[in-house]
Amino acid sequence: MRRLIIPLIFGLVGVAILVSLGMWQVQRLAWKQGVLAEIEARIYDDPEPLPDQPNVQDHRYQPVALRGTLGAREARVLVSVKSVGPGYRIISPFETEDGRRILLDRGFVRAAQKDAPRYSGPLSVSGNLHWPDDRNSSTPENDVEDNTWFARDIDQLAERFDTEDVLVVAREASEDTSVTPLPVDTAGIPNDHLQYVVTWFGLAAVWFAMSCYLLWRLARKET
């Protein structure tokens, strides 16, 4: 029986560690689902006027309703939309009725519509303030000369269009039918905790089964 003690302890400790990791991920999953629910509620809340000094800490995802004039200039940000394919986000300068100049993410056009004429002029728009995190270590630098952007770098876009460092992502824009809105949602926010839950509990089950098999083999040798 002494030969069984160390494998038994090893098996129990391993299962306990893996189960505890699985339980931790269950807690993280509940936390993340709560965060996403709060963000969803924030995104679809009633629109408000544009804040005087928007900032990411206080105004991320805040819905806003604006009236003003949409500029004719645009930046084209390369994206791919599921079930549609590659295309571009169209970002243009927007001047509000009280004279503020901001950036408006109007939405998506297919690659074939890259150079198609688009609406400019008076516009009523509702959307969300956003500080996108499009760039990572593998994102190419924006080709400003060719007007091909690979990330919505707000500081560069604001400098190019002489606007505030403020981006509104359109949800509805009644007069602008030349672009399909790509509104802010939670689809791009990662939530992999359920996969981790399955992984850790699955490993715990495998560890338990292997430990039982090892103990059975050792017990047979003892007999």
From TrEMBL:
Organism: Poseidonocella pacifica
Subcellular location: Cell membrane; Membrane
Family (UniProt): Belongs to the SURF1 family.
Keywords in alphabetical order: Cell membrane, Membrane, Transmembrane, Transmembrane helix
Pfam families: SURF1
Protein topology in the membrane: Multi-pass membrane protein
InterPro entries listed in its UniProt record: Surf1/Shy1, Surf1/Surf4
Gene Ontology cellular-component annotations: plasma membrane
Transmembrane segments: 197-216
Keyword Ribosomal protein: no
Main subcellular location of this protein, as a coarse class: membrane
PANTHER family cross-referenced by the UniProt entry: SURFEIT LOCUS PROTEIN (PTHR23427), SURFEIT LOCUS PROTEIN 1 (PTHR23427:SF2)
Name listed for the protein in its UniProt record: SURF1-like protein
The keyword Membrane belongs to this UniProt entry's keyword annotation: yes
